[in-house]
Amino acid sequence: xxxxxxxxxxxxxxxxxxxxxxxxxxxxxxxxxxxxxxxxxxxxxxxxxxxxxxxxxxxxxxxxxxxxxxxxxxxxxxxxxxxxxxxxxxxxxxxxxxxxxxxxxxxxxxxxxxxxxxxxxxxxxxxxxxxxxxxxxx
Length: 138
Hints:
mainly beta, two-stranded antiparallel ribbon, 8 strands
């Protein structure tokens, strides 16, 4: 599926991850796989991109934004899926399919995102806490 096909309703998410080296194509993946990935939710005209990666022996998940855009207000709402789930992000964290494509291509080729993007650590604890998210660069 291509990013341009995301419509926010019936096609609303995409994930990309590397196959474990000890698993053959078509084999059952190990439990709780994948551990590291790139994913998006939303529609072709407005989606988020998140990356999960191992850092200091801990898996962390970030939302990706454009570096240097300067927007920190979280006032953009991305809606997806039949249950109309919502994610509130800043304007620099909203991508079109065309804007997201180079991020996915770089991740496919290298396992990371290209320079020029910032990362905001997500607090994925449940129930949610008041723990602040932090800004970093890729």
